[in-house]
Amino acid sequence: RERALKISAVTIVASLGSKQGKLESVSISLVPSSSHPGTSHLLCSVMDFYPAKIQVKWFQGQQELSGHVMATDVVPNGDWTYQLLVLLETPPQRGVSYSCQVEHISLEEPLNRPEF
């Protein structure tokens, strides 16, 4: 079933480097489930941003999926930037639109990365 899912790896380079902050990249990937072989989950990776305060949400169409999301802590990279991984625990369904929304001070408006 997973082979039928269209994966469009999306990477955006924002590199705003403003006085207010920076956000280098946001990408979405399909990762295999370690607890349920044969199923996959969507992972939103937000890399090389500062300051550390950030908000990441998953959406199915226009509906926020707050109850099915697991995130790492914001992790320092050692160069004053941070990274965050946010996993959508519900396996994606064929024909359904998913997106990862990022809110950060370096962005003028929330950034939406669509998947599928």
Automatic annotation (TrEMBL):
<dbReference type="Pfam" id="PF07654">
    <property type="entry name" value="C1-set"/>
</dbReference>
<dbReference type="InterPro" id="IPR007110">
    <property type="entry name" value="Ig-like_dom"/>
</dbReference>
<dbReference type="InterPro" id="IPR003597">
    <property type="entry name" value="Ig_C1-set"/>
</dbReference>
<dbReference type="InterPro" id="IPR003006">
    <property type="entry name" value="Ig/MHC_CS"/>
</dbReference>
<dbReference type="InterPro" id="IPR013783">
    <property type="entry name" value="Ig-like_fold"/>
</dbReference>
<protein>
    <recommendedName>
        <fullName>Ig-like domain-containing protein</fullName>
    </recommendedName>
</protein>
<dbReference type="InterPro" id="IPR050160">
    <property type="entry name" value="MHC/Immunoglobulin"/>
</dbReference>
<feature type="domain" description="Ig-like">
    <location>
        <begin position="24"/>
        <end position="112"/>
    </location>
</feature>
<dbReference type="InterPro" id="IPR036179">
    <property type="entry name" value="Ig-like_dom_sf"/>
</dbReference>
